[in-house]
Amino acid sequence: MSELSGTARHNISFTLNGETVSGSAEPRMLLTDFLNYELGLTGNHVGCEHGVCGACTLLIDDNPERGCLTFAVQVDGRDVKTVESLAGREGDLNDLQLAFRKHHALQCGYCTPGVLMSLTAYLEHTPEPNEEELRDMLSGHICRCTGYVGMVKAALDVVEQRKAKA
Amino acid sequence: MADQIDTKPYVGQSIERVEDGILLTGRARFSDHQPTVTGTLHAAMLRSPHAHAEIVSIDKSKALAMPGVSAVLTGQDLTEMASAFLIVIKQPMQHYSLAVGKARYVGEPVAVVVATDRYKAEDALDAIEVEYRVLDAIVDPQKATKPGAPILYEEVGDNVVSTREFSYGEPDKAFAEADRVIKLTAPYPRNSQTPMEGFVVNADYIADTDSYDVASNYQGPFTSHPVMALALGVPSSRLRMRVPAFSGGGFGVKVQIFPYVVLMCLCSKVAGHPVKWVEDRLEHLSAAAAAPNRVTEIEAAVKNDGTVTAFRFDQLDDYGAYLRAPMPGPLYRMHGTLTGAYHIENLAVRNRVVMTNKCPSGMIRGFGGPQMYFAIERLMHRVAVELGLDPLDVIRKNLVPAGSFPYRAAAGALFDSGDYQTAVERAVNEGGLEDLKRRRDAARADGKLYGIGYSVVVEPAQSNMGYLSNILPAEERRKNPKGGAVSNATVNVDPLGTVSVTADSLPQGQGHATVLSQIVADELGLTPADISVNMELDTQKDAWSIATGNYSARFSSSTTVAAHKAAVKVRNKVARIASVTLNVPADQLEFADGKIFAANNPENSLKFYRVAGSAHWTPGSLPDDMDPGIRETGTWSPPELEPPNDQDQINTSLTYGFVFDYCGVEIDRDTGQVHIDKYVTMHDSGTLLNPLLADGQVYGAFSWAIGCALFEEFAYGDDGSFLSGTFADYLCPTAPEVPEPLILHMETPSIFTPLGAKGIGEGNVMSTPACLGNAVCDALDIETVSLPMTPSKISALIHAEETPPPAGGAKQAAPAPAGTGRVIKGSGETTVPAAPDEVWRTLLDPDKLAAVIPGCHSLDKVGDDSYRADVSLGVGVVRGRFRASVDMSDMDPPNSVRLSGGVQGPLGASKGAGNVRLKAVDGGTHVTYDYTVEISGKVAAVGGRMLEGAARIVIGQFFQRLVSQVGGKTAAAGTSPAGETLWQRILRAFGIGR
Amino acid sequence: MKPKAFDYMRANSVDEAVAGLAKTGEGARILAGGQSMVPILNFRLADPELLIDISRIKELDYIKIDGNAVQIGAATRQAKVMAWPELADRIPLLAKALPHVGHFQTRSRGTICGSLAHADPSSEIPLCLAMLDGEVILKSASGERRLAAADFQTGMLSTAKRDDEMLVAARFPIAEAGTGYAFDEMAQRRGDFAIVAVAATVSASKIRLGVGGVADKPTIVEWGNIAGDELDDALNAFAWELGGYDDVHATARYRRELVRRLGRRVIEEART
Ligand SMILES: Cc1cc2nc3c(=O)[nH]c(=O)nc-3n(C[C@@H](O)[C@H](O)[C@H](O)COP(=O)(O)OP(=O)(O)OC[C@H]3O[C@@H](n4cnc5c(N)ncnc54)[C@H](O)[C@@H]3O)c2cc1C
Ligand code: FES
Ligand code: FES
C-alpha cells in the first residue's frame, strides 16, 4: 500500500453497524473523533484517550478494541460495531440492555456503551463466566457512578437467561 | 430487582429508570454530541509546566501564523477584556481564566489557541514561546504556613488567607475537667471523583446584543452565574446558560467549569465564531478540581467511661492555587455538624484556609464531609483503644439520644429526625457483627492480620446558601445576612392533556427524571410513563435561582419538594375545573388511573386529559379567577435554613441522614495489600423515593470511597510537579477492586420535607474511608494511618525493618532518594582515555560541548560560562525538542566544575545541577559525577514510572559522548547500537545497562 | 490530547514494511497493536514521521512450533496466544503471565512482539522471554538476524534493534519436563503495569528467578536448588542488587520487599 501523507485527508470507507459508511480523515485522526465529529454518531464515548478507561470500546471485526487507540484510516475496509448496533430497529433493547436497565447497571450512562460492547464480545467468547471472571474482564472499564454491582448482576442474569434458552 | 410496577403510589417503589432506554442505545446526546453551528472553532490550552513561575514573556506570533489558527489569547489579553473573578473572602487574590503575571500550579492555562479543529489547535500550542522565571514552589500545607515559605500572593503576604475561631459551650472547662485528653492528627489527601466525561463548553458571542449563549455541562450552583456575568461585564440576563439533559457524571467537579465558560465566551468574541472546548483527561486530572487536602488536629476531652465531653478542631484546609467560588465551601459546609453523630455540647474550632502551588480545590462529592469524618471517626476509635473500651461501645455511649429530635447540635445543625441507636442495633444484628468478630478471631488465630472498623456519620443534604457567611465575623454578617435555598420545578399540561416536567436539578446520572415522574404521576393519578421529563435547563427560559444545580445531595430534599408543590398546584387547578362538570367539590375528587372521580362515587368520573386539555381549548368555561392553560411552577425555600446567629451557630443543611458502617479487612503480610472481607452499611435517609436508585447512590459513593481509602491521590513532587496525569497513575478502582457492600435501610422520615426524603448520595464517601482506616489500624495495632492506604505504605508499617544488604556480598545499589517527589538523584563514574586538561577543554569549548550534549541541534555561548542549546531528548520512542540552558560555576580547572541549568519544551520542563570531578589516573582521567534533576510538566504527569530510568539514560548519553569525544572515537549518535557495542560497555561502566 | 501529524503506511507484507523503514530511517516507527504507541502519540510524547502499520500483515499472524521453540509472529495478538489450546503445555510461564498483561480489551489488540519491542521494564512478556532464554527475530531490508532476549533489551524502553529493523517474530523455548514454572506480580489494580513482577523456574538442580519492574529491564538470577535461610539470603542479596526506585505508587524499599517476598512465593510455587 502506498503511503498516506500526514497533512492530507484520505478517503476511507468501512462497515459501521451493518451499513457502509465513508468519509475522509488525516492519518492522525482517531477513530473516536471520526465517529463522533465526521459521522455524527452519539454512542461512542471518550473518557481518557489513553486506553485505560474503556469508554470508547467498540468492536472491530468483532474484537473488542479501544476506539481511542485506533486511527480512522486503520479501519478502512473493516467491520466496526458500536452500541448503536445492539438494539433492534424499533429501539427494542436486547437482553443485555434490558438487564442493565433492570439491575440499574448505569447511572450517567457515559461508560455504558463501552461496557456493553465488551460484554457483547466477552459473552461470545466466554458464555458462562463466573463472577470473578466477569469482574476481571470488567477491569478494562472505569465506571465512576455505579460501583459495578449492577453491571455484574446484569451480566450474570443474561448468562442465566441465555443458558435457559440454549 | 426492578420490575415495572402498576400500583400507586409510585413514590417509594423501585421503578426502572425512564432515562435508560436512550442511554443504553447510545442515542443520548452528551455535551460533546450536541449539534454545533457550521464554522464552530475549537480551542486548546497551553498549560504551565511549572508549579510557580513568573511569566516573563509570551510570543504567540508563530502560533498565529499556523494553518487554521484564528486567535491566540493570553492572560494579559484577558485583563483587557474581562474582570477578575469575584471570590468569597476579602483578599487581593486576582484570578482570571488564564494565568496573569505568574503561573501558580502545573496545568494552569497560560494561553488559549482557537483553530478550525482541535488537532490544529494543539499543533499551534507547540509554537507558542513562553519565557518563565521559575520560582520556588510550596506544596505542603503545613510548611506553607511557616515564615519563609514561598508566597503565592505577594499582595496578601501570607499563604494563610483566612483564619476563623469558633467556640460553642465551654470547651476550655470541659478539657480542664476531662479525665483524659486524646489527640490525633488526621491528614486527608487530595482526590476527586473524576467524572468520565470532562468539561465541555460551547460558547457563542452574539455581537448585536453583546450577549453570550453557552451550552455546557455546567452543574451549578448558580451562585457562579453572576460571578461569570460580572467577569464578562454583561448583565446576567445576557449570559444564557444552557445545559443538556445528559451529563457524564459530575460529583461536584463540574461546578468548577465556570472559568472555562468565561474563557470560551471571550474566545468566541475575539474569533467571531462559536468556540468549543472539550477538556481532555490530562487537563482534567491536572487542572479541573480536587477536594482540598486537609490537616486536622483533633482532640477529645473524655471521661474514663468513654463519654466525650468536648472536641477541639484545628483544621488547615488546602485550596491549592486559586480560591474559586464557592471555595472555601468544604471547610464551612459541614460546620453545623462538627460534632458528628454525637451529643457533645462543647466545641472549639480553628479554621484556616491555606494556598499552595497545586490545582485549585473544588466541590467534590462529600464536600468537606470526608475530611471531617476521617478526623472524628479515627479519633473515636483512638478514644476506645486508649481507654481499653470496645469502639462500638464508645460510639453508642456518645450518639445523639433517640427521642431528642429535632436536635440542635453545638455548632447549630438542626438534626431533623432519626433514631441512631436503633439503626446501630439493627445493623449489628442484620449485618452479622458477631459472626464477623468470630471471623476476625479465627483469622488472627491463624496468624493473619485482620481488623474490624466502625464509623458513624450524619449525612447533611440541601445546603443552606448562608453556610459560607460564617467565614465573616458576626458584625460583618449582620450587614448582609444570607440563608435559605430556593428550588424550582415546573409541571406543564398541554392541550391534549399530556404532562411534562422541567426542574432545576441538572442531573448527572442520578435518575432525577425517573423520581420526578414518580412524584408527579402519583399526584395526578397517572403513571410515570405518562410524564415526560425534560432535564435540560436554559437560564433564559426556565425557572432557576442561585441554589439551582446538582450538588450537596440537593435533589431529594429540595427539587422534589418543588416538583411536588407544582404537581399539587396542577392537581388543584384540574380538580377545580372538574368539580364543575362532575358537580363534586374539588376537595372530594380523587385522581387515579388517568381519571378524576368523586371519592364516594368512582363511577362519576372524567378522563384527566380531557379536563386538563379544556384549560387550553375552552378557556371561557374556566372559573372567573382562573388563568387559562396549565403550567405551574413550584418554588420552595425551607424556613429552617436561617442565616447564622450571633453565636456563630448555623443550620448548614436542611436534612440529616444517618449512616453506620462496619467492616472486616485482612492485610496480606507479604504485599501489604488490604482486602475487604466484609462491608456493612446502614442508612437512614428518611423516606426512600426509589430504593433501586437509592442503592445505586450508595454503591457509587462506596465505590469512590474505596478509591479514596485505598487508591486515589493527586500526587505532587516537592517542587510542585504534578505526577498523576493519567488513569494509570490516578487509580480509580475497577470491578475487581470494589466489593459489594451489604446495604441496610431504615426509614425515619424527615419532618422538614413534605415527602420525608433526605439525601443518600454522599454518606459513604464520609463513612467508608474512616471505617476502613479504623479497620486497618485495628488489624495492625497502629495509631494513625494516612490515605490512600496503598500496599507500599502498609508494607512500610508491617515490615518493620528492612533486611540489610549482605555484608560484602552482592553489590549494593545506590540508595534510593527519599520521598515521592520527582527529584531524581544519581551518581556515577567512568574513566575517560584522555588527560584531565583535555577533558576540561572539551567541557569549555562550545563546539566540542555541542557534540557531547545528546541530541544537540545548536549551542550558543551566551555569557562567560553560560550556554543556550536546542536539543532533542528522549528514550525509546518517547522524544521531544527542548530549549536548554547550562551554566558552569565553582570552576576549579582542571579538577572540578558544577553544571546547572534547565530544559523546557512542549513535553515539560526540568532543572538540575551536577558536579563533575576529574582526576588523573593511569590511561586517562577518572571522572566522577553526581546530579539532581527535577522534572515537571507533561512528562512528569504522564510518564512517572519512566522518569528515573530516562534521566539516567540521558545523563549516561552525555558521558558516553564525552568519552568518545575526547577519546577520539565516533559517538554512536543518531543510530541505535547493535549487539555488544561501545554504547553498552559504557552503560555497563556507568551501572546503567545492567 | 491529539497526535501530531504523521504519514501512514499500511504494510501488506514484511518486505513492504522493511522497505518503509529503510527509506525513512530514524523517523519511521512500526505500529502493531498500538496499545502503547497510540497513548504516547496522543500525549504528543513522540513525533514519528511515518507509522508503518503491520497489524494486517497476514504472514506475521501465526503461532507455530519450530524446533524446540514456539515461534510467534509480530502481528499475533496477545489474545490469540492466550486462547491457543497448547499454550499451557508448551509455554506454561507465558500462560500464567498473559492474564496479567493489561485487560481483555487491550490483549485483543496488543501484540506479543509489540510488548517486546516497547521494552517497558515492568512488562510481563519481556520478562517471560528473558526467563526462558528466548530469542527475537529481527529483519531489515538487508537481512535477518536473531538476538537472545538478554541481548535484545538494553534498558528502559531501549533495545538493540536498529532503526531499519523490525521484529518479525519471537521464539519462546518449549517447556522442559521436570521444571516447574510460576509467575506472580503485584499491581495495585487488576491489569495495571506491575510494581514488581516475578517469575520462577525450578528444576532438580537449579532455580531461576526473574524480576521485572525494579531495574531498567527484566533481570534474571540463577541459583542451585537452595532453600530455607540460604534462599532468603540469596533473595535479599538479589533485591539489594536490583536496587529499585521511588515513584508515586511505591518506594524502592517496597520493591525490594516484593522481590524477597513474592520471589519466595513463586519459587515455592514452581517447586510443587
Ligand atoms: C490500559 C492498558 C493497560 C496495559 N497494561 C499492561 C500490562 O499490565 N503489562 C504490559 O506489559 N503491557 C500493558 N499494556 C501495554 C500492552 O497492552 C501493549 O500491548 C504492548 O506494550 C505493546 O504492544 P502493541 O502491539 O500494542 O505495540 P504498539 O503499541 O503498536 O508498539 C509499541 C512500541 O513497539 C514498537 N513495535 C511494535 N511492534 C514492533 C515490531 N514488530 N517491530 C519493531 N517495533 C515494534 C512500536 O514502534 C512502538 O514503539 C497496557 C496497555 C493499556 C492500554
Ligand atoms: S477513551 Fe479510550 S480507553 Fe478511555
Ligand atoms: S454510569 Fe457513569 S461512569 Fe458508569
User: In percent, how much strand structure appears in the residues of chain A?
Assistant: 15-25%
Q: What structural class do the secondary elements of chain C suggest?
A: alpha+beta
Please work out how many helical segments of chain C DSSP would assign.
11
Radius of gyration of chain A: 17 Å
Q: Provide the β-strand percentage band of chain C.
A: 25-35%
**Radius of gyration of chain C from the CA trace?**
19 Å
Percent in helix of chain A? 25-40%
Describe the protein's architecture and organization.
The complex is a heterotrimer of chains A (166), B (994) and C (272). Chain A has helices spanning 31-38, 95-102, 112-125, 131-138, 149-165; strands at residues 10-16, 19-25, 57-60, 63-66, 79-81. In chain A, strands 2-1-5-3-4 form a five-stranded mixed β-sheet, with helices on one face. The longest helix of chain A has 17 residues, at 149-165. The model of chain A has no long low-confidence stretch (mean pLDDT 96). Chain A is of the alpha+beta class. Chain A contains five helices and five strands. Chain B is built from 26 helices and 36 strands. Chain B has an eight-stranded mixed β-sheet with strand order 3-5-1-12-9-10-11-22. In chain B, strands 30-36-35-34-33-32-31 form a seven-stranded antiparallel β-sheet. A five-stranded mixed β-sheet of chain B has the order 7-15-14-13-8. With 994 residues, chain B is α+β, with helices and mostly antiparallel strands. With 272 residues, chain C is α+β, with helices and mostly antiparallel strands. Chain C folds into three domains: 7-53, Uridine Diphospho-n-acetylenolpyruvylglucosamine Reductase, domain 2 (2-Layer Sandwich); 59-173, Uridine Diphospho-n-acetylenolpyruvylglucosamine Reductase, domain 3 (2-Layer Sandwich); 180-271, Enolase-like, domain 1 (2-Layer Sandwich). Chain C is built from eleven helices and 14 strands. In chain C, the strands form four sheets. A five-stranded antiparallel β-sheet of chain C has the order 4-5-10-6-7. A four-stranded antiparallel β-sheet of chain C has the order 11-12-13-14, with helices on both faces. The longest helix of chain C is centred in the last third of the chain and has 20 residues, at 252-271. The termini of chain C are far apart. Classes of the chains: A alpha+beta (166), B alpha+beta (994), C alpha+beta (272). The interface between B and C is large, with 79 and 70 residues.
